Amino acid sequence: MVKIRDIELGDFPLLLAPMEDVSDPPFRALCKKHGADLMYTEFISSDGLIRDAAKSVQKLDIFDYERPIGIQIFGADIESMKQAAEIIEKAQPNLLDINYGCPVKKVACKGAGAGILQDIPKMVFMTSEIVKATSLPVTVKTRLGWDDDTKYVVETAERLQDIGIEAISIHGRTRKQMYKGEADWDLIGKVKSNPRMRIPVFGNGDVDTPEKALEYKNRYGVDGIMIGRASIGYPWIFNEIKHFMKTGEKLTPPYLKDRVEAAREHLRMSVLWKGEHVGIAEMKRHYSNYFRGIAHFKDFKTKLVSSFNLDEINETLDYIEVHSEEFSFVLSE
Questions:
Q1: Could you please report the per-residue DSSP string of 191-257?
Q2: Could you say which of 2, 88, 102, 187 is catalytic?
Q3: What is the CATH number of domain 256-326?
Q4: Is 102 part of the annotated catalytic residue set?
């Protein structure tokens, strides 16, 4: 049984990665429904929380059906991060996660996210201060290093464990790589095999099939796997991995009507949470993913993304569902 303090996650948990503009409550609800064991919010700016910025505060919204869930924060200023940790504790998540992995320029080049990988002593000190500032279990998500010359993750993970974090998730790329090239899991495996490590070690990066998940579990010995991009438009991946690990057999992929049902539910929850205009607007980025692999779908996609009328969108979804057998639908491997 993998545990983070008193949070029981099962024998080999599958985690939903925190993804900006993706991992909101509607998306998380679908991933939970389809087998995610632990989820995280989108990352939240510590400065935004302290300023009481509406967008940052809204990301604190969590619901009982999502539990266990962690709220993730990022920032470069230690005092701001400590204050943010105190604010987050009042939202009562199951844990607090620190983002030391975001590679985007506007975050990393200000010393936050993966930017702190250029200053490991500050990373360790900041983490220590956050651990002291909250009674919540503190976890960390990070990368192998800033670049190929600074892959210090084995030593860094040990130091972070020693100052009190209770789990670590590692993305198998450097900041310089961004999301390019293949994720290197060898160092993730070395973190896990370090005899001094006693906290859960979760691997992240490029796991997009049940076969790969089982292979990485066996090869690298990690305590669980964090799924990111592979879950976008495909929340079924969590249960598909679990079923394959248990039986050695692959589940039948979702039919087109299953995808329509998921898109419709995602839209309904998005509108409920964000209001009709914003909810519809933010769903537009998801349709391509839900309906990936359908031949001659361009006209229907155009209808879905061009309309701001909820009834029209639902009518389009209804038409796709009713006529699902007329579409040529091939899953991309």
A1: HHH-TT--S-EEEESS--SHHHHHHHHHHH--SEEEE-GGGTT-TTHHHHHHHHHHHS-PPPPPPHH
A2: 102
A3: 1.10.1200
A4: yes
